[in-house]
Input
Amino acid sequence: MGMKFEALQARYGDSLLLTFEGDATIRLLVDGGPAGVYRTSLSPRLLLERKTLPRQEPLVIDAVMVSHIDEDHILGILDLFGELQDCEQRHAPWPYRPSWLLHNSLDSLAGEGEGGLVRASGGVTVLASLEGEKISDGIAKREMDPVAVHVLQSYGQGSKLSTLSASLQIERNPPDRSVLMLEEGNVRTLKLGNATLKIVGPMASEVEDLRKNWSEWKTKKNSPDARQALAAYLDDSVPNLSSVVALVEHEGRKVLLTGDARGDRILEGLEKAGLLANGGSLEIDVLKLPHHGSARNMGVDFFERIKADHYVASGDGTYGNPDRNTLLMLEQARPTGNFDVHLTYSAQSCDDTHKQWRAARGKPSFKQGRDSIADVVKRWGTEGRIAVHEGAVQISY
Output
C-alpha cells in the first residue's frame, strides 16, 4: 500500500493527481490547468490510468478539487466535465466518474445563492466565457478595465462548473455543500478511503471579511465606478480567499496543497488548525509551492516553518514562475539541503519562456543574474546538497 503524487505539465497552471492504495485505489484530482492542458496532459494521463484497471468502467475519480476559479486551475476541469456532459447527451458511457467536486464558488464565498453576484451587481450578464463584445447592458468588453474582464470571466467559469456538476449529479462539498473553510476549533476533515484531507484555508475570518465588503459594496453599486471597484477588489482577494488549502495525510505521509494562497495565510491557517505550533515547524513529505513558485507574498520564514522532503513548482516561466527568489529563499531557510526540488519544466525552458513573456509585455529585459533559475539549478547540481528533477513529477511512497 502506498501513495503517489503527480504534477502534470500544465503550462503556467496546476494539475495534480494523487493516488492512494488500500483495499481500493483512491484518486484525488486537483485542478486541470489552463486552456489546452486537458488535451495535452490531463486526458492522456487519465486514459493511461483507465488502462491500469481495465475492469473499472468508468474510472472512478473519488474527488476533483478546484483550488480556486482562476483559469490556470479551472479550465482543464471544465473540459473534463464538458466531456462527461457530451457523453450524457449522446447517451454514451462515461469514461470517468467523479464522485465529489471540492470547490468554493465565488457566490458561496460571498454568501449568495448561485448566480447571486450577477443579480446583485445590477444584472451583469456573465456567460461561461466572454466571447462576445457585450458582457453587460451597454458595456462593451473593450471599454472595461482588464481586471474587470478577468474577474468576470473567472466568475463565468466558476458558474459553468457549478452548473455542470449539478447537471451531472456530482456531489459538491459534501456533506452539505457548504464553503470549504477553516473554522477555529473545528477542522473540516474529509475522508477518501484511508486518506484524509484537512481543510486549513481559507479561514472563516477571511470569508467573513469578504462577505462584509461585498455587503457594503451592494449599498453603493449604482455609483459610476462601482463595478470596476468591485472587480478590482475581487481580483485582489479571490485567489487568496478562495484558494482551498488542504493537508493530505495517508499512512503517515503528508502532502500540503496550497493553490495560490499567500504564505503568511497558510502558516496562520496551519496554526489555527493545531497542525503547526506557534513559532514551531511542520515536517511533511511533499509541498506544492504556492502560486507556481512565485516569490510574491512569500518569505524565508515560510520555508523555515514548513519543511518538506520534496518541493514541487508547477510553472513554465510565464509570469516569471517559478521565481528565482523563491528558490533562493528556500536555500536560505535550509542551507544544509538534503531535500528534492521538482520543476514541471526544465529550468532552461522556464528561463526561455520568462524572457519571451517579458519581451511580449514590454517589461524590463530578462537579466541572468536577477531572473535566471537555470543558474541556481546548475549551481545546486554542482554542490550536491539539493537534488533537482525537471519534467512531469512522480513521487511514490
User: Anything to note?
Assistant: The chain has a mean pLDDT of 87. Residues 281-396 form one domain.
